Amino acid sequence: xxxxxxxxxxxxxxxxxxxxxxxxxxxxxxxxxxxxxxxxxxxxxxxxxxxxx
Length: 53
Description:
four-stranded antiparallel beta sheet; single chain; 34% strand; 2 helices; elongated; alpha+beta
């Protein structure tokens, strides 16, 4: 995650980047997610699959 130190005051999502403010600091983070195949097959997310329906 990067910190934005500039004059732009932006809170939005552009493509895979999310710009947000936390307190008085601005941050930029890249979108991250778990793949569908991982959720369907990984033994560590059994409870997630149970709660999916």
